Amino acid sequence: MMNEKIPHAGGILKNYIGGEFLSSDLLFDNINPVDGTIINQVAEADQNLVDKAVVAARKALKSWANMPLSQRCALLHKVADGIEARFDDFVAAEMADTGKSFFQARTIDIPRGAANFRAFADMVKSQSTECFHTPTPDGQGALNYAVNKPLGVVAVIAPWNLPLLLMTWKLAPAMAAGNVVIAKPSEETPATATLLAEVMHESGVPAGVFNLVHGFGHQSAGSFLTEHKGVDAVTFTGESSTGSAIMRAAADGVKPLSFELGGKNAAVIFDDCDFDAAVEGTARSVFTNGGQVCMCTERVYVHRSIFERFVTAMKDKAEAINIGWPLDEDTDMGPLISHKHRNKVLSHYQGAIKQGAIIVTGGAIPKFGDARDNGAFVQPTIFTGLSEDANIVKQEVFGPVCHITPFDDEDEAIALANDSDYGLCAAVWTTNLTRAHRVAEQMEVGICWVNSWYLRDLRTPFGGVKLSGVGREGGVHSLSFYSEPTNICIKL
Ligand code: NAD
Ligand code: 6OD
Q: Whole-model pTM above 0.70?
């Protein structure tokens, strides 16, 4: 990647508050995980700037909420147009912050950023409301109906793995439903949120409707937002432990919360599967984005009759992954997000080896002999041979790794898959339709894919059970979370 193609390379990424781009005295470095170089600096929002964002948002709330729906939706389509018009800038910024491949940034992350705004701008127009005709003793009855109002000022706190995609997945429905927002991207990935602020500004979104504050979580912009009396609701994607901290912070204000949290997702491979499709799909589900997708498979359960063949085929897939420079057309996988995260992933690898894992492939840091050796790369890794209570089988790693275990029958496979503190998603591979329904229904997760993985329809409920989340977003579920219904009862 040529440095001059990265927007704001060498400059300062600012906060966007009340329609103005504001710097601060607190600057931190934004690091490229491919080679450890500094891309630019980021202006961290202190308590004063967060207060200012809340005041600006509150001031904008009434006029945004009361804006004719068609006008509000037209503005959101304009934001989508703006992302598309600056597509190359967004791709370059996302790649620089994360090291993800050009292919992934241009086919998944940035297109979904625009698609999220279009989808919710269209969906909100057909949002319906409940209406009941209620019998009364006088025989005249009453009419009960609900009107949907926005929640108010919504804090949107996003992670680093799919920065623009996951930020806009929450911003778009929140804004479509008439809320004003304060976005806080991860400290690791501040760039595309800053470009989004520029697009909002250029698109004519009124000052204060969209605000951006940069910074960290604890005792920084993140907790300033979640503890703020002027913030009406918090929508968060990130680690389950951060979700707990936010829940505690939001408890005093009894703020509505929507949480999309971690996963320890299982794939179940039956002996009647389409073998090649199952290998291809499972490899994709383990290694996409270096395993840094909340839906990535980290536990694979394979029927014993095809276990050895499956493990060998997965090994071949892992070893064929091209790890490299994001811009190279043939790069499949980039680095992890940071050295700190790599240390966490490597300590999981080392822990697994210590607990007696068989290393099918990987387990270490790749060597390149160039600047990438300063980056945060790890090898795609497959383990077998551990019992179900081993740490790497229990805890979320969030790296390019899985453990593969054999099973003997369907009931055992279901029990193994469900034996987790998490419950985000699962994948089931079988050509038997009856079995597919039977098994998928029994998975204790928010989403179960059959013969596929990460096949998305933005209208469907998305979220997790157990430690994987609270609530559902997607389609009417998002619009419902970001709205507060008032029931009106009219005696007839
Ligand atoms: P993280 O929880 O460390 O950080 C997420 C965001 O929360 C960041 O913006 C961070 O600054 C902020 N934050 C951290 N502590 C905070 C606090 N005390 N108060 C307020 N804000 C705080 O998560 P991450 O490392 O950025 O992302 C990886 C994790 O996210 C993984 O566990 C992954 O499974 C999960 N994730 C879940 C989904 C989902 O849809 N379920 C999607 C993506 C990622
Ligand atoms: O695709 C989505 O809408 C979504 N919420 C994806 C989550 C990915 C987790 O890393």
A: yes
